[in-house]
Amino acid sequence: MEKLTIVKVGGGILDEPTQLDALILHFAQINGHKILVHGGGKVATQTAKRLGVETQMVDGRRLTSTEMLEVVVMVYGGLVNKRVVAKLQAKQCNAAGFTGADANIILAEKRPIKTIDYGWVGDVKEVNTEVLKGLLSQGIVPVIAPLTHDKQGNLYNTNADTMASVLATALSSLYQVRLWYCFEKPGVLANAQDDNSVIEHLSTQLYQTYQQSGVITDGMLPKLDNGFAALRQGAQEVIIGTTTALGADAFAGTRLVL
Amino acid sequence: MEKLTIVKVGGGILDEPTQLDALILHFAQINGHKILVHGGGKVATQTAKRLGVETQMVDGRRLTSTEMLEVVVMVYGGLVNKRVVAKLQAKQCNAAGFTGADANIILAEKRPIKTIDYGWVGDVKEVNTEVLKGLLSQGIVPVIAPLTHDKQGNLYNTNADTMASVLATALSSLYQVRLWYCFEKPGVLANAQDDNSVIEHLSTQLYQTYQQSGVITDGMLPKLDNGFAALRQGAQEVIIGTTTALGADAFAGTRLVL
């Protein structure tokens, strides 16, 4: 099987011009088939504010009203996505931007209402691996914004960490998949205040221990849950680290192990 | 050679929900390979206003400042493009949104400054027919927003009528191309006040006569110049008409003839 590298970058990197440039430079150099999944960052919140659209958060998750959906479609699907594409094109990387709706690559359904109605938030149902394979074999590098659709004409806001994980899982039937999560830190830290305390190998058992002891908390949990899910379901390698550690053929950071 | 239908729709149609639904319904039914090129419409101007970005026009053309470029990338490349894609997907049409930057399909350069600096406005240099052919042969229906890039990391605002024309010209080396311009009127009118006065066949000679006599003016001129350019350079059929006249296998309106 051929190799495929899926890189997920968060908003913190997209918001910082120097970090973004480092990402573009290093991502463009990765060998073989690759996909970039990006989050949104502060631009969506800032644009919403300028447009007078209120940002509502519950437990760190954004509720997506109809007005907020318009903002994230504009910002994630338009501004952020096309900026990244144009910058990668300038580095001879044949990037093309997609949302889950484009070529129906990621089908979702509205998140069911239990205690909270998240609004236009979608949970992934299906990844269209055949279309992605066709694009990759044409030499296209998909740059995927965190939006999905339901094939009934509706768009949804969808978590980028989850999208990267489900893409890795689905595509592991066709490729040897490496999933690299890029964020602001050099890896998962044993001491949040010390960037030199990177946990080099994180097993599911160690992950449980660190959760119980409070070493790993909050923001890292969904990323790690998504990473472990991909690893259990077929991804060959899942690593969490910082942009500048992205190399043509390797990535340094915290490696997840089962 | 296989057939390819390129449909261009303007902002007036995109802004009107009933017109947009008619477009989606009829476009989805067109047989064979097809591409949709869309303009922007009032949403860009409205969004710019809400964001406090001033719209500057010279001779009916929008000047594109850095702030305005951000708005059109958000609105054309994000909101309008993805809405159309999601709606087409709901009609079993495998639409995927692109700007000229995506997969480098349309390369442009900044419009040279003569008397006016249009800002981030790009003139098309090259169409990447091979990538488009690859997408079409995969069954993908490109939905193209009026934005281009220069392969140096810059995005440009580009006239959608021109983009449709240059796509038709370039792709006529690979396909039998039909170019259909959809707008609010049933065709080019001999009497602007009378929708029943459609000019069924418009030759270059008749076009000159109508221009001189003032029957055809202003807004129609760039569309017709673009249409004639495509016809002279290889398109098999160029027709200008209204959305509801779009059929699975034909389009009614004003047919251009050389």
From TrEMBL, chains A, B:
It catalyses: N-acetyl-L-glutamate + ATP = N-acetyl-L-glutamyl 5-phosphate + ADP. Substrate binds at residues 40-41, 62, 157. Pathway: Amino-acid biosynthesis; L-arginine biosynthesis; N(2)-acetyl-L-ornithine from L-glutamate: step 2/4. It is an enzyme of class 2 (transferase). It is found in: Cytoplasm. One of its GO terms (cellular component) is cytoplasm. GO terms for biological process: L-arginine biosynthetic process via ornithine. Residues 3-240 form the Aspartate/glutamate/uridylate kinase domain. The record marks 8, 223 as: Transition state stabilizer. It comes from the Bacteria. Keywords: Amino-acid biosynthesis, Arginine biosynthesis, ATP-binding, Cytoplasm, Kinase, Nucleotide-binding, Transferase. Its EC number is 2.7.2.8. One of its GO terms (molecular function) is acetylglutamate kinase activity. InterPro entries: AceGlu_kinase-like_sf, AcgluKinase_fam, ArgB, Asp/Glu/Uridylate_kinase. The keyword Manganese does not apply. Pfam families: AA_kinase (PF00696). Catalyzes the ATP-dependent phosphorylation of N-acetyl-L-glutamate. NCBIfam families: argB (TIGR00761). Belongs to the acetylglutamate kinase family. ArgB subfamily. This is Acetylglutamate kinase. The lineage of its organism: Bacteria, Pseudomonadati, Bacteroidota, Cytophagia, Cytophagales.
